[in-house]
Design goal:
Blueprint: H1 3-30, E1 36-37, E2 41-43, E3 53-58, E4 60-64, E5 69-78, E6 87-95, E7 97-102, E8 106-107, E9 117-125, E10 133-142, E11 148-156, E12 162-172, E13 182-187, E14 225-229, E15 240-244
Antiparallel strand pairs: 1-3, 2-12, 3-5, 4-13, 5-10, 6-9, 6-11, 7-10, 8-9, 11-12, 12-13, 14-15
């Protein structure tokens, strides 16, 4: 093979390799949720010795303005030194945020949903090793004419104890762009609803208001809403009862 042909062949191989790397890198990062946060989360019931369970949500999500669809990653982590044993993660939607599916999880029957919520899924976890985490792909819709919240309680297998609860924490935008292809929403931000015509929330004709749901977060002195659940595994149903409580604060 002549020197010229070898140069052309080598250049073609390098170009193909570079293209493959670029495609692979894009594909690998396409589902990357970006920075995650435990904002709005707090320990509730005391976890077993050596077990430290927390959750996290993306700091930013994007809502398609035409379909109202969005994707959220929900992650549960055991930051302790011992295995968690059987636990479950709940993914619950409130107000304008509706959870449509959570991969690998079972839908909570409408009659068993927590008061004030519109949708939810229960994710059974056989065991979470120390220092390990597990992430779930959440498909949801977000009505940008409303506020929207999500809640991630982590419970024991039968739902009698809630070791950790993140939320109900809002996703929202202070200045939505209804005419753009998508609207970015930030975790821990109340949504400022705007209709496609740019009207204010009071002029949108939305009558979905109701009692304000309690939220957890750094600004709150106590966790006003705790999840105390019980599973009804028979017949494939999952029962959940949501009660008001004021858990004791652990010393730091």
């Amino acid at each position: 093979m002549s020197s010229r042909r070898r140069t052309i062949a080598t250049g073609s191989l390098l170009t193909a390799s570079f293209s493959a790397v670029m495609i692979f890198s894009f594909s690998a990062g396409a589902d990357d949720p970006g920075p995650m946060s435990d904002k709005g989360g707090k320990a509730v019931d005391e976890a077993p010795a050596g077990v430290k369970l927390t959750t996290s949500l993306p700091e930013k999500i994007s809502v398609d303005n035409s379909s109202q669809e969005t994707a959220i990653t929900a992650t549960v982590k055991n930051g302790g030194t011992k295995e968690s044993g059987e636990i479950r993660l709940l993914v619950v939607g409130f107000d304008g945020l509706s959870v449509k599916s959570v991969k690998g999880c079972s839908e909570i029957a409408e009659k068993d949903l927590p008061e004030g919520s519109n949708s939810g899924f229960a994710c059974a976890i056989d065991n979470l090793a120390a220092g390990k985490s597990k992430s779930y792909a959440v498909d949801a819709t977000f009505d940008l004419k409303k506020e929207g919240k999500i809640c991630l309680p982590v419970q024991d297998a039968d739902g009698k104890k809630t070791f950790w609860q993140q939320g109900p924490v809002p996703f929202g935008a202070n200045n939505p762009s209804p005419n753009a292809p998508a609207t970015p929403l930030l975790l821990g931000t109340d949504n400022s609803p705007v209709t496609p015509g740019g009207d204010t929330p009071g002029d949108s004709g939305d009558k979905s208001g109701g009692k304000e749901l309690p939220r957890t977060g750094p600004a709150d002195q106590v966790l006003p809403l705790g999840a105390v659940g019980a599973a009804l595994v028979s017949a494939g149903a999952v029962g959940l009862w949501w009660t008001q409580r004021r858990p004791e604060r652990s010393g730091s």
